[in-house]
């Protein structure tokens, strides 16, 4: 039968071939045969520009996020250090002091530095291993040019009752370099209990339990 199928003439054959090719092309395009995997220069430039805009918008937020993480970590460490010092005083029934020690093992007020917790048997603010005083914990110094203060005092001493001796209650204030609005605090009451500040009114800044905003210099 096939031998009887033939094109009437060359012109009609050409038209039919063209139509067939056109339909075939349409089908192949629909099915994605002509997809390319690369980018044109314009597509690449637009992509880079969009990426630049996204980065410019996201970077400050990312920076702030990282600073907040650093502060939360430090505040958590300070809180746990205070808690640990108090618990040790109660459980060991000894005076336990938390302070920055200088090279002579005497308490100073450089709270930015390394903080030590030790049993201070004679309550003289000096760590004396020769007198059977024991170093219980050490917290590394804060970093990134941030500041940490404990206003007015060079030590915190817990009595065996867990209370602060000689009314040494004050507030640790942690201020990150360049982000003074993000300052946070650990507050100590005379009873020796510690509290972390929190953002009570959800305005992005921490307050103490009385609603007073934590302020950085
Ligand atoms: Ca001592
Ligand atoms: Ca607030």
Summarize the entry for a quick read.
With 217 residues, the protein is α+β, with helices and mostly antiparallel strands.
What are the salient characteristics of this protein?
217 residues; alpha+beta; minor pseudopilin epsh fold; four-stranded antiparallel sheet; disordered N terminus; binds calcium ion
Kindly describe this structure.
The protein has 217 residues and is α+β, with helices and mostly antiparallel strands. The protein has a domain at 70-196: minor pseudopilin epsh fold. The protein is 34% helix and 16% strand. A 4-stranded antiparallel beta sheet has the order 3-2-1-5, with helices on one face. The protein has a 4-stranded antiparallel beta sheet with strand order 4-6-7-8, covered by helices on one side. Residues 1-5 have low confidence and may be disordered. Bound molecules: calcium ion (2 copies). One calcium ion (CA) binds at residues 120-122, 124, 126, 128, 133.
Number of H- or I-type helical stretches:
2
According to CATH, the homologous superfamily of the domain at 70-196 is minor pseudopilin epsh domain
Main-sheet strand order equals 3-2-1-5
* Helical amount: 25-40%
Question: Mean of residue pLDDT?
Answer: 88
Distance between the termini: 99 Å
Radius of gyration, CA atoms, in whole angstroms? 36 Å
The chain-level structural class is alpha+beta
SSE succession? HHEEEEEEEE
**Quick one: overall form?**
rod-shaped
What small molecules does this complex bind? calcium ion
Strand tally: 8
- Classified by CATH, the class of the domain at 70-196 is Alpha Beta
For the biggest sheet, the summary is:
4 strands, antiparallel
Report the CATH topology name of the domain at 70-196: minor pseudopilin epsh fold
- Proportion of residues in extended strands: 15-25%
User: Spans with pLDDT under 50 lasting ≥5 residues?
Assistant: 1-5
CATH architecture heading of the domain at 70-196: 3-Layer(bab) Sandwich
């Amino acid at each position: 039968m096939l031998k009887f199928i033939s094109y009437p003439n060359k012109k009609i054959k050409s038209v039919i071939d063209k139509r067939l090719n056109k339909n075939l092309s349409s089908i192949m395009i629909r099915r994605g045969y002509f997809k390319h995997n690369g980018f044109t220069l314009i597509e690449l430039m637009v992509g880079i520009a969009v990426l630049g805009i996204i980065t410019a918008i996201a970077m400050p937020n990312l920076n702030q996020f990282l600073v907040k993480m650093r502060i939360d970590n430090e505040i958590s460490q300070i809180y746990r250090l205070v808690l640990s010092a108090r618990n040790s005083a109660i459980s060991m029934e000894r005076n336990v002091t938390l302070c920055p020690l200088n090279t002579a093992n005497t308490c100073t007020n450089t709270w930015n530095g390394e903080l030590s917790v030790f049993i201070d048997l004679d309550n003289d603010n000096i760590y004396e291993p020769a007198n059977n005083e024991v170093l219980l914990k050490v917290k590394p110094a804060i970093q990134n040019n941030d500041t940490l203060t404990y206003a007015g005092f060079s030590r915190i001493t817990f009595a065996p009752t867990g209370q602060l001796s000689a009314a040494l209650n004050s507030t640790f204030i942690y201020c990150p370099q360049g982000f003074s609005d993000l300052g946070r605090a650990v507050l100590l009451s005379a009873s020796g209990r510690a509290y972390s500040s929190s953002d009570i009114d959800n305005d992005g800044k921490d307050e103490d339990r009385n609603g007073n905003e934590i302020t950085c210099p």
